[in-house]
């Protein structure tokens, strides 16, 4: 009798021990599984995501130069060891205390556009401009097509006009930024004239237009095609 009761007690203790061990093993396995999932998520991270994490520190503030988030993803492509292209700065135009100045760089990849904008952003005077209107046009020979984009940076319609100028001139593999420092006096449609004149002058000087006459004809054509939309 006593032996039977003792056996039942031992059996109960064994079952309790097994149950505790089972729970402990389950918790250990769950912990390991969580670590594995975290590791696999890191392994499965795409190269693009890793690149974005690495570039967070050195990515220029595109808002300062008018490159909005919709366009900026294009500029994350390319080879990371590309260098910023040499930048040319054009002469300024001043009208009623507003000053305009063009900046130009030869580019063949979207990343070079990014590097160009980033280099400009290092110049505090340029970065602090009221507007930095920009456009670029890259010819992709393998596809016989163009990669192009523009940005108004608050100067409504100016980016589109600047890109239109590049198209009329058939300017290839070039990016242009026109900075405007607002002087407190509204210029009306003259602001577009100054932006395009700045850009056209530096494009001619750097060989992106066949001649000043071609550039002037391009300017007249752009003025006619955009005249109705001027405000």
From TrEMBL:
Residues 47-59 have a biased composition (Acidic residues). Residues 30-41 have a biased composition (Basic and acidic residues). It holds the Pfam family Impact_N. Coiled coil: none annotated. Gene3D superfamilies: Impact, N-terminal domain. Residues 30-62, 212-231 are annotated as: Disordered. GO terms for cellular component: cytoplasm. Residues 220-231 have a biased composition (Basic residues). Residues 96-203 form the Impact N-terminal domain. It comes from the Eukaryota. InterPro entries: Impact, Impact_N, Impact_N_sf, Ribosomal_Su5_D2-typ_SF. One of its GO terms (biological process) is GCN2-mediated signaling. Belongs to the IMPACT family. This is Protein IMPACT-B. It comes from Liparis tanakae (Tanaka's snailfish).
């Amino acid at each position: 009798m006593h032996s039977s009761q003792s056996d039942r007690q031992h059996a109960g203790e064994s079952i309790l021990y097994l149950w505790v061990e089972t729970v402990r093993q389950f918790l250990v396995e769950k912990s390991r599984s969580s670590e594995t999932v975290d590791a696999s998520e890191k392994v499965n991270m795409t190269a693009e995501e890793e690149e974005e994490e690495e570039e967070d520190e050195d990515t220029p503030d595109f808002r300062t130069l008018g490159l909005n988030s919709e366009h900026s993803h294009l500029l994350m492509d390319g080879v990371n060891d590309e260098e910023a292209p040499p930048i040319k700065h054009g002469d300024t135009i001043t009208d009623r205390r507003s000053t305009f100045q063009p900046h130009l760089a030869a580019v063949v990849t979207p990343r070079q556009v990014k590097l160009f904008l980033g280099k400009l952003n290092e110049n505090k005077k340029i970065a602090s401009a009221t507007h930095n209107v920009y456009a670029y046009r890259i010819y992709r020979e393998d596809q016989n097509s163009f990669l192009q984009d523009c940005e108004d940076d608050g100067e409504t319609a100016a980016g589109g006009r600047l890109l239109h100028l590049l198209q009329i001139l058939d300017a290839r593999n070039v990016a242009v930024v026109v900075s405007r420092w607002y002087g407190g006096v509204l210029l009306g449609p003259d602001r577009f004239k100054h932006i395009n004149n700045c850009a056209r002058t530096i494009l001619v000087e750097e060989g992106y237009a066949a001649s000043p006459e071609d550039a002037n004809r391009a300017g007249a054509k752009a003025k006619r095609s955009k005249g109705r939309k001027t405000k």
